[in-house]
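Recall that a protein's primary structure is simply its ordered list of amino acids. Everything else, from secondary elements to tertiary packing, is in principle encoded there. The following example makes that idea concrete.
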Amino acid sequence: MPTVVNDKLISWASDIDPKTLRQAEKTARLLIVEGHVALMPDAHVGIGATVGSVIPTRSAVIPSAVGVDIGCGMVAADLDVTAAQLPDDLEPLLDRIEAAVPAGVGKGHDSVGRNAERWLALHRPATDMSGDQAKKAAIQFGTLGSGNHF
C-alpha cells in the first residue's frame, strides 16, 4: 500500500532513504507538477531528479527527470491472473523470478549480452555510441541493469 507523504508526494517504497525523500519533496513543490509525484519501490537519489519517480508535469518537460539512470528500473506487466488466483504467500515465486530476469553485477549478463549484440547489430541505435557505451548497452540490454557498476 502506498504511503501518503503529503498531498503532493506518494511513495510505494517500503524502505526509502531520507535523502531520496527530501529530493522528491523538493520536486513535488515545483509549480509545474500536476497532481502528485509518485515514488516507486526502487526510488533513489538521482542527479537532478529522483530515479524511480513519476513526475507528472503541466506544459513542461524536466530534462534531468528523463533518462537520468536508464536501465535502472522496473516493469509493470498486465497479466491475465486475478488476485484470487494468486497464493497468499508470493515468497516461493521470488527464486523463479530472479532466475528469469537477470539483474545485478554479473548475474545472467553473458547470455543476455550475446543476444543483445546480435539484436543491436540488426537494429542500430538512433545515436552513435562510443565503444564503451556499446559494450555497456550490450551487457545490460534486456536486464534490470547492474546499478552503476559497469
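The longest strand covers residues 37-44. Residues 109-122 form the longest helix (14 residues).
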